Amino acid sequence: MKCNIGHTDRVLRMTVGLTLMGLAGFGIVGAWGWIGIIPLATGMLGNCPAYDLIGMNTAKK
User: Fold this and answer.
1) At 13, is the pLDDT very low, low, confident or very high (cuts 50, 70, 90)?
2) Do 47 and 4 meet the contact criterion of CB atoms below 8 Å apart?
3) Which letter does DSSP use for residue 27 in this model?
4) How far is residue 20's CA from residue 1's CA, in Å, rounded to a whole number?
5) Is the dihedral of CA 8, 60, 41, 47 positive or negative?
6) DSSP 8-class letter at 47
7) pTM of the full structure
8) Please, is 34 exposed, middle or buried when counting C-beta atoms within 10 Å of its C-beta (0-12, 13-18, 19+)?
9) Tens of pLDDT along 15-47?
10) What is the per-residue pLDDT for 34?
11) Are 15 and 24 in contact (CB under 8 A)?
C-alpha cells in the first residue's frame, strides 16, 4: 500500500474518527457514530482506497 494521504489530511481524518467514536461511546449519537473507525483507520494507515479509485493523492511527492 502506497501512502496517498498527506499530513493535514491524516490529522483531520483521525480527529473526526475519534470524535465520532467518542460520541457514539457516550451515547450522544447513535450506533452510526462507530463508522468513525474508517477515517481513523485510513488516517493511521496513510492510505485511502477511495483516493486510489479516483486517482487522488494529498501526500507530498
Assistant:
1) very high
2) yes
3) T
4) 26
5) positive
6) -
7) 0.90
8) middle
9) 999 999 999 999 999 999 999 999 999 999 999
10) 97
11) no
> C-alpha cell of 58?
494529498
CA 61 to chain centre: 20
Structural contact between residues 29 and 45, judged by C-beta atoms closer than 8 angstroms: no
Q: Which three cell numbers stand for residue 14?
A: 483521525
Write the CB contacts of 51 (distance below 8 Å, at least 6 apart in sequence): 4, 5, 57, 58
DSSP code for 12: H
Please tell me the distance from the alpha carbon of residue 41 to that of residue 17, in angstroms, as a whole number. Answer: 8
Going from the C-alpha of 34 to that of each of 13, 21, 29, the distances in angstroms are 14, 5, 9
Length of the chain: 61
CA dihedral 24, 45, 50, 4 (to 10 degrees): 140
